[in-house]
Amino acid sequence: MSDNKFSTDSASQRNRLLSCLQAAPVTTIEARTELEIMHPGGRVQELRAAGHNIITQWAIDSTGKAAHRVAQYVLLSAV
Fold it and tell me: What is the third-level CATH fold of 10-77?
């Protein structure tokens, strides 16, 4: 049995991600840990294919033992 608080189907993941992107940029780490989206890049590609203008910027994630680069997705405009 799963303890997931979110549905794992692709459409639900896209909806969660888009909703968050409308409020603020989202990093891959945030998408995985807070939104339970294991492949954020795939969901972003699907949103782009649907016409959403999302860019990728590079950010530094220092929550682990060492700082490293992570993708940060930014919604520039809504469809």
Answer: Arc Repressor Mutant, subunit A (1.10.10)
